[in-house]
Design brief:
The protein is an all-alpha fold. The chain is built from 5 helices and no strands. Helix 1 runs parallel beside helix 3 and helix 2 packs antiparallel against helix 3.
Amino acid sequence: MWRDVVLVAVGGAIGTAVRAGLTLAFSADLGPALVPLINVVGAFAIGILFGWRARMPESSRAQRVQLFVGTGVLGGFTTYSALAVESADLGLLWWSAATVVVGTAAAWGGVLIGRGGRARP
């Protein structure tokens, strides 16, 4: 539905703007650690959202929240494409691989927290 596309687009614009603001504010201080940090924090937040969503009854409202916040805001906030560009430097390839592993672990931890500590809903 068009409403869903608009939710994702608006959420993505918000998430991208937040990431850009953080990049402007902290890139001088954090350097190449900023992109992986943003991705891990975003993966953790996505995990929390999806864990929380697994506890909720099916509803169109919960689905819209997931589209707006998860796919839109947090999808725009994370930037694995920038990580891919950074990994073109073979010296940083290990950094990129570690970010994916840590991001996956963060998402898993977020799902557990979102589900209230239960491994299954």
